[in-house]
Amino acid sequence: MKVTILDYGAGNVPSVERALQRLGAESHRTDSPAYISKADALLLPGVGHYAALVRALDENNLRAPLVDAIHRGVPFLGICLGLQVLFKSSEEAGQLHGLNLLPGIVSALPSHVKLPHMGWNQLEKKRDSSLLTGIAPGAYFYFAHTYAALDSNASTAATCSHGAEFTAVIEQKNIYAVQFHPEKSGDSGARVLQNFLRRVA
Amino acid sequence: MSLAHRIIPCLDTDGERVVKGVNFVGLRDAGDPVALAARYNAEGADELVVLDIAASRDRRPTFLETIRRVAAELAIPLTAGGGIRTLKDGRAVVRAGADKVTVNTAAVERPELISELSREFGAQAVVLAIDAKRAGDHWDVMVRGGKESASLDAIEWGRIGVAAGAGEILLTSVDRDGTQIGFDVALTAAISRTVTVPVIASGGAKSPEHFVEIFQQAAADAALAASIFHDEVQSIRTLKEYLAACGVEVRLPC
Questions:
Q1: What global pTM score does this model have?
Q2: Is B170 within the bounds of a domain?
Q3: DSSP state of A106
Q4: B197 touches chain A (CB under 8 A)
Q5: Which of residues 144-173 of A touch B (CB under 8 A)?
Q6: Is residue B22 part of a domain?
Q7: Per-residue model confidence as pLDDT tens digits over B28-87
Q8: Is the dihedral of CA B161, B162, B164, B168 positive or negative?
Q9: What distance in Å separates residue B250's CA from the closest CA in chain A?
Q10: Which of A72, A120, A154, B101 sits a CA distance of 20 to 30 A from B90?
């Protein structure tokens, strides 16, 4: 079993690879549609601008194979922008379309707090979550973002707050996603990645 | 439930080794960056900053290799900088494993550098380092390692830098740097209340009380220090326990 990391040039790919390596998981990166179609498990990292991710998916013809794989039930983990792209669209690039696998849109966090939301914050669990198995209440995770899914919905397993409550953990069938960076979140983050790997195995 | 105040150790390097010294004078070796990074990662540091204070062109490949080796030790974010003059320099640092890039003198000379980096990597990856020095009723921006005045108001420069796309400010008080008499509360408060992005206070820290003061009185989002951590004057774990006992929200290591 191997985790296929969608590599479209996002800054956090090497750290995601290292984090998986520390857990003894095999991974390989690809920007090829063929590899995505064959993947056992998919991981979409992302940091930076929403438009960069969406354009990279479209320019490399990755959108259709990715959506197909998710529909077929291939376990998927989205990180940061990889969570945001699951929704219909984002205010960060209103003219572009997300993957539209979850209802709702991504909006800017309110401007009365310091933005980006940068640093370590805690989660509020909304329901049982396999990604958060073994995570102590009050554990901190590292966030670095300005936009977020402000409307939580049935897929929301946990939220976080910075000026407003937003979706921090998503679990819906084979779709898993986190707004924080598990690869940068110390032991707690490693546990989340390990929990995903368990779902895959 | 809210955002924790961050404690950030800083490794000033000559590209390869961690060095110590005030204003580049009397530099002495303070250790191996990889070993220190591993120690801080384990002790509960919230982030790590690695700077190339020599920033000489021909030693750049050595510094990039240092970033790669340091990044391999970390499960926390890494910021790197020193001598970043172009988008290409920034790219090299990110590719080597840094999550954020700091810019300083080159951004003062050409503020578009901030926008270029921000467009490519996002504002959350661009840290504007401001070295500020008291000049009468305001603070001057200092460049070239804190030695030369840029004749620019530090608070105004912070505002401009954020508008250009910086996602965070690393604010060093040149007056306090190396003194160990405490952070510059007035300077940090002035910037922190003006800009809309997180502010990292730096320069002058020694005791745990200095950290309480900068978080409670100056609204700093993070605090950075170097030698007090390297020399084990202050352990990160003990410091965080002290902050928590004083009611400052921090991420306590498990």
A1: 0.96
A2: yes
A3: B
A4: yes
A5: 144-146, 160-162
A6: yes
A7: 777 899 999 999 999 999 999 999 988 777 788 899 999 999 999 999 999 999 999 999
A8: positive
A9: 9
A10: A120
Is A183 a known active-site residue?
yes
Partner B contacted by A136 (CB < 8 A) = yes
Per the annotation, the verdict on A80 as an active-site residue is yes
Burial pattern B215-233, b for ≥16 Cβ within 10 A else e, equals: beebbbbbbbbbbbbbeee
| Cross-strand bridge partners of residue B79 | B49, B100
Partner A contacted by B240 (CB < 8 A)? no
Indicate if the pLDDT at residue B254 is higher than 70.
no
For residue A141, the chain B residue with the least C-alpha distance is: B251
Calculate the average pLDDT of chain A.
Answer: 95
Q: In total, how many domains does chain B have?
A: 1
Per-residue pLDDT tens digits for A72-118: 999 999 999 999 999 999 999 999 999 999 999 999 999 999 999 99
Question: Please, what are the domains in chain A?
Answer: 2-200 (3.40.50.880)
Q: How confident is the model at residue B106 (pLDDT cuts 50, 70, 90)?
A: very high
B1 located within any domain:
no
Q: Does B252 reside within a domain?
A: no
Check which CATH number belongs to the domain holding B33 and give it: 3.20.20.70
Residues of B in contact with A49 (CB under 8 A): 119, 122
Question: B160: domain range?
Answer: 6-245
